[in-house]
């Protein structure tokens, strides 16, 4: 259920589509080791694309942030859900069409660079595009909601219900989408992960023929990769922990798992199942009685691989999630 790779992933995939928060940085800081791992992958021939569902920042702003964190990045290496939404709209209506932007600077810039004319919420328009915008006015939202209800074509940058902030997890653009949809009875077209347009737009802009999606979230990054028919690497430096991993639905299961971005630079061992035990490296996992038990020693990544495959097998066969109460994960997971 996980794929083995005798070759390093950076040698078999030529484009790394990297989610940002929880993969490259967490909050304001680079994930430990991430700048070096990315530089090594790039030296070994992998193109790097930084892919974000956040529609409020421009690629220039995101690239400058990455450079501040010690990661070489140009604006052309960054692809945002705002760009994917703008592209989606521009392909369907004539050039110079008027579009309402309900969001922030990054959304306006993306629409303009696709040759669309951004107008106010009161103005005649052929589409309305919404994205995360911390300074949105309630009066504009009300006007937008009524126009969408009355038939204005609506595209949403993404549907993330939460967004990480300096003061903790806060409501994301998905909360606004929910509210607008509930009022108007209209479901928007969505550009960002897990919908397909953002990953398609990434391949189109950055290039490459064998892309690999790298993310920390099962329901956006990993499910999005499956929808776009792209292989995926789950890293454990973000929001996915043991509880989420063992409960992953089939659509949320990655191709590969690694503790962190070092996983791009390594072969991935096979996970084998025999005699009721699931083995990877020095670890052996069983799920008898619905409780997950791990024995052995060795590589932290192998621990996660064996645990994932054993618990998914249990979930598929019994329909319930294994009990992991009290199970200790490798203490120093990212390091070894
Ligand atoms: Mg993330």
TrEMBL record:
It comes from freshwater metagenome. GO terms for molecular function: phosphatase activity. Pfam families: GNAT_like, Hydrolase_6, Hydrolase_like. GO terms for cellular component: cytoplasm. SUPFAM superfamilies: HAD-like. InterPro entries: GNAT-like (IPR041065), HAD-like_sf (IPR036412), HAD-SF_hydro_IIA (IPR006357), HAD_sf (IPR023214). Gene3D superfamilies: HAD superfamily/HAD-like (3.40.50.1000). Residues 280-320 form the GCN5-related N-acetyltransferase-like domain. The lineage of its organism: unclassified sequences, metagenomes, ecological metagenomes. This is Unannotated protein. PANTHER family: 4-NITROPHENYLPHOSPHATASE-RELATED (PTHR19288), D-GLYCEROL 3-PHOSPHATE PHOSPHATASE (PTHR19288:SF95).
């Amino acid at each position: 259920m996980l794929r083995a790779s005798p070759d390093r992933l950076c040698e078999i995939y030529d484009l790394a589509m990297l989610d940002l928060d929880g993969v490259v940085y967490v909050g304001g800081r680079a994930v430990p080791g991430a700048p070096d791992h990315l530089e090594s992958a790039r030296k070994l021939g992998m193109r790097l694309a930084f892919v974000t569902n956040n529609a409020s920042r421009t690629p220039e702003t995101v690239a400058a942030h990455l450079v501040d964190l010690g990661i070489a990045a140009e604006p052309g290496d960054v692809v945002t859900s705002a760009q994917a939404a703008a592209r989606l709209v521009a392909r369907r209506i004539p050039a110079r069409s008027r579009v309402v932007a309900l969001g922030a600077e990054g959304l306006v810039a993306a629409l303009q660079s696709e040759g669309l004319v951004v107008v106010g919420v009161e103005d005649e328009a052929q589409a309305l595009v919404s994205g995360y915008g911390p300074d949105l006015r309630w009066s504009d939202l009300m006007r937008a909601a009524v126009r969408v209800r009355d038939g204005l074509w609506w595209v949403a940058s993404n549907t993330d219900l939460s967004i990480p902030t300096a003061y903790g997890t806060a409501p994301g653009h998905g909360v606004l989408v929910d509210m607008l949809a509930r009022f108007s009875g209209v479901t928007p077209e969505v550009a960002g992960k897990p919908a397909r347009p953002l990953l398609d737009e990434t391949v189109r802009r950055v290039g490459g023929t064998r892309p690999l999606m790298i993310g920390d979230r099962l329901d956006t990054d990993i499910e999005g990769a499956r929808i776009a028919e792209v292989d995926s690497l789950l890293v454990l430096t973000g929001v996915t922990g043991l509880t989420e991993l063992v409960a992953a639905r089939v659509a949320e299961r990655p191709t590969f798992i690694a503790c962190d971005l070092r996983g791009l630079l390594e072969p991935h061992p096979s996970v084998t199942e025999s005699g009721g035990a699931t083995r990877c490296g020095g670890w052996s996992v069983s799920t008898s009685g619905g409780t997950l038990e791990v024995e052995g020693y060795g590589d932290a990544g192998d621990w996660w691989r064996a645990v994932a495959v054993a618990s998914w097998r249990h979930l598929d066969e019994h329909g319930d999630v294994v009990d992991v109460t009290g199970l200790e994960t490798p203490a120093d997971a990212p390091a070894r």
